[in-house]
Amino acid sequence: MATDSTSGSRATGKLSSSTSELFGGLYARGGVSAAVGDEAWVQAMLDVEAALGGEPLRAEDIDIAELGREAADHASPVVPLAKRFPDTHPGATSQDIIDTAMMLIAKRALVPLLDDAGAAAEAAGRLAERHRETPVMGRTLLRDAVPTSLGLEAAGWMTAIDEACRAVRKVPLAVQMGGPVGRRDPTVAASVARRLGLAEPVLPWHTNRVRPAGLACALGLLAGALGKVARDVTLSDHLREGVPGRGGSSAMPHKRNPVAAVSVLACTRRIPGLVATMLASMEQELERAAGAWQAEWGTITDLLRLTGSAAAWARDLIEHLQVDAVAMLAAVGDEPDLGAASELIDRALEAHRR
Amino acid sequence: MATDSTSGSRATGKLSSSTSELFGGLYARGGVSAAVGDEAWVQAMLDVEAALGGEPLRAEDIDIAELGREAADHASPVVPLAKRFPDTHPGATSQDIIDTAMMLIAKRALVPLLDDAGAAAEAAGRLAERHRETPVMGRTLLRDAVPTSLGLEAAGWMTAIDEACRAVRKVPLAVQMGGPVGRRDPTVAASVARRLGLAEPVLPWHTNRVRPAGLACALGLLAGALGKVARDVTLSDHLREGVPGRGGSSAMPHKRNPVAAVSVLACTRRIPGLVATMLASMEQELERAAGAWQAEWGTITDLLRLTGSAAAWARDLIEHLQVDAVAMLAAVGDEPDLGAASELIDRALEAHRR
Amino acid sequence: MATDSTSGSRATGKLSSSTSELFGGLYARGGVSAAVGDEAWVQAMLDVEAALGGEPLRAEDIDIAELGREAADHASPVVPLAKRFPDTHPGATSQDIIDTAMMLIAKRALVPLLDDAGAAAEAAGRLAERHRETPVMGRTLLRDAVPTSLGLEAAGWMTAIDEACRAVRKVPLAVQMGGPVGRRDPTVAASVARRLGLAEPVLPWHTNRVRPAGLACALGLLAGALGKVARDVTLSDHLREGVPGRGGSSAMPHKRNPVAAVSVLACTRRIPGLVATMLASMEQELERAAGAWQAEWGTITDLLRLTGSAAAWARDLIEHLQVDAVAMLAAVGDEPDLGAASELIDRALEAHRR
Amino acid sequence: MATDSTSGSRATGKLSSSTSELFGGLYARGGVSAAVGDEAWVQAMLDVEAALGGEPLRAEDIDIAELGREAADHASPVVPLAKRFPDTHPGATSQDIIDTAMMLIAKRALVPLLDDAGAAAEAAGRLAERHRETPVMGRTLLRDAVPTSLGLEAAGWMTAIDEACRAVRKVPLAVQMGGPVGRRDPTVAASVARRLGLAEPVLPWHTNRVRPAGLACALGLLAGALGKVARDVTLSDHLREGVPGRGGSSAMPHKRNPVAAVSVLACTRRIPGLVATMLASMEQELERAAGAWQAEWGTITDLLRLTGSAAAWARDLIEHLQVDAVAMLAAVGDEPDLGAASELIDRALEAHRR
Hints:
homotetramer; mainly alpha; two-stranded antiparallel sheet; two-stranded antiparallel ribbon; 4 strands; elongated
């Protein structure tokens, strides 16, 4: 992917989130939330306008609340933006600006998202290495089966996260520059793509939603991989979260709650329904959809934010996981056969490093 | 339903929303958004604490951002709230406070939501009355079929909205006061219910989620009924939105976009996935769920806000709808047979008034 | 609900299912499957035709495979059916026949479905009574909290199932007789309703889908309540399934798998997505939808079958549940305080009996 | 992908479907249905057993109904299968057999599925070529905008289908051979993979569900691309379905219904909810999930069948589409500017041929 020559680096900084502060610790942990907030969206739209030849502008100079109010009369925030800065909007349509901004938002948000997910996989890899010989009672259908290696469980987490991250990285984030009905000269798209560090599509994709829906799907896979880790932790009395001061219960002082695992699951449980919305939104009418397109904006924002939060929480969870190997061994009995566990862990670590 | 003796009336006022300002005109129109914002949630939690005998407190005196940050260490905003005001928290658990606050939020948000939906139905009723003899070409499978009455179409919209509103009103909003594991003395629940104007359940419902999921389903039905109206408007060249200054296209001055209908659909299209999340969240483990419960908070908030926005937009749409009866008649031909349309409209209006 | 004067009683009998035989033990247990199979659908359509004044016919005399093949040319099985028996089809449209047949299918399928769900609740009630003083360690966020009563857990299951069954029973199953575009004389609907034991709606509901979507939602609530029971059983080593010969593992002879609980969950996990499809299908265009309506037929069939199977499995699960009270007590310690558990169980049983 | 050296070629033949015959014309068109039916599933399981060194067996020699009944006692059809043919089951677990069979089913079903989808794209490409200069009024938000080229619309359909098919082809269909808890010697997996023409995974993926969920997502993208084509056809009075004898209305002889487009949509509308189920099923507990895994079997079967049916219907739709170019031109006015349409069509056709 080419370099993002505009102000992308700012987007992961201190740009305000636009979600709940009350529930933000749960649903909006990590760097993704700022990268998909209102200011980041406005900046992305301004960056697209600039890449089209307009004057570079900064989102912090815009009154976003007022812009949002005016947007209601157009079912699009681009129309009032274009009115405000007529010189910066050389013939681009709302759809060109918003679709390309969505891809730019995704590109920027995926940096912290994949960083956290990658660190989670890395931490799982360290657990796999360290606990390759640590026996744990394998459980199938939630009943004791035969022993396995804790390191192999962790290697399974790592491999799943890696595979899902690969799917996320493969989503072709491309500009969309079709003009009013999709027949705009493709050299414009090529030029904007170069300036923004996005791919150039074969055709304008104004009503071909394989890209945004494919992004949603890849995020869904990653969320699923992260949720599996968290579920395993909640189900094991011998895995404990290791961040001091966290997870205390007000009513029951003896209790330590699996806060990070619960937070991962609070995010990942919300993902499948959002992916379904993105897939249902693919049925877009003729040259611009009446409803399905506009439903995407909030949905993709939520998908990025929630998957990003799940990744940040999962990283925190796995990096600090405490293993009670003594209790695990006691539950298993002496010197269990761990089969090909160690060999499998080696295979997994090797694939991870590639 | 008993009177809400606490500060509920404030909740529909100027309490800050906690959603995107940029997309708020689309997704957060009307009075519901403020009633489900961060400040409204904190106020609802404080009201539950007060109903338990604590000192009455006001959300505006709380630093919500700080509360949210501390909440992350507990997967619950109640723990830091209780720490801050230890006297106000006489033995209630996080789940008691949050579940009951969720019901209070719903009760308060349903006031503007049902007001807007009711006004939309009322406006559809006026169209039904006025256009009972206005012929329009009926279209089945999106192909011309035989003529029908535009008033009958509008009567169908009204009846569907009415039926869905009835489903929303029937959801039994009740306190949840089970204590740590659900075996708390039911007189506490009875007393809190009385003070908050909520129903008293047979049992604590900490892991029986028929109530929140049932609320989600009823909102899903209402969103579906509203989306159908908007879809019909987008599909008819003879129905136009009548708010001056709205719907102009920057690129194509001759064009008038169906902004309100598109905005309704932008909201309603996001609902089915959210309802699926609430239904999937019913599988809650033992005495308190690890993930499924915490996934509900943001989801029910989004469901209320989006359905509320759809209702506000639908009211606006139907109240200002302009009918080109001349063009409709031209498409139909002279003096079509409208069958039992007028009689059916009378039946519908009579049922509406009951 | 009025009596079904036609051949409904046959529908729960030996009519062939139309789902997988291989996976049918899992997804199609109990009496619902036959009541929603191909033959039941055809019989329901024939019964509607008969209620319209046609000659009574029997599904077993129809070649359903051939009918299905011809249906492909019309996106409706009613057209070839009407061609075959022209006398039996006095002016009804495909939509009238299919919508009303869908309600008849639902009415018939709900008999075994509610019977199984009711028996599951009844069995949970017996557990509540028997184990009102049996202590069990309460678990919140899947960590040990404080003791509670196993009977109270079971009472919670019972109450949730009862509440969901009530929601299912309240769905207003009504005929739909609108004619080609929804303006048919309502006396026809009244007469058909009387003959079929269905309710009479205010208006034809050809594109007002509150009824089918509301049915889907109620089934979703019931599935959620059943899934919670099964989840709890899988999570407790002290609850065992008690059907001899079931749950043995081929590879590990010492193991007893929670087959019934797993089967309940295999069904209930499939429900939320199906409900989302029904809600998304409410956006039906003008006088007959192009796609959304036709998507309902298979979806509502699956919803009934899977919820019915979950109910049959849950009944089997709860009726044969074995409780290891000794191990439970050992995990808790002597004479725990069970709070208001017994009083709450009495309240729940009293409400159940009402 | 390596050659499938076993009996895969039979699977697309006359093996019985296991879905509704009544609605099969709608939901089960084309070759996929037989490739995912009961007999195909049993054959796939037998083929996996044979690849493990067992005796080759044929599904047609098995009483599937009886097998299904016995499967209910084990929440798995593999246990009774293994009992029946003890020699053919050398230590493989239910999960190994079913997971690998699922991949084999997918591999075989994707042959007719991608064949139909490819033919649909090919037909769209022919339309793009033929109608590159055919003007049509572009419609945005379902209102007339400015003219565009019908060929460009068709090129957009083709490109979306191509991109989605590429996503389907990229799903790594691999064997799963973990043994009871996932630590089986990987040389077994390698050998089975070779024999079945499937990929060899890094690790057993018994509870890493990126593969089946990724397959579901890719099918979701393809369904979305196909649904968009069908939606466009339903919305244009100038596009007609050209299969003689199809689409006649019993009640209204003048009417021609868009049967193929409606049938595509009847299938594609059911997909997003099913994908959500597969994504939610990724949260699989420890070494074998209790419920989430078993929910996948029917869901992936439905996803393949419905997407396959949509592809078969879309092929039929596009191959026979009739264009009323005269009426289109009349709606547009003389000699409209079609911008870069022709150049874009060339780009699209070139990319299609690669």
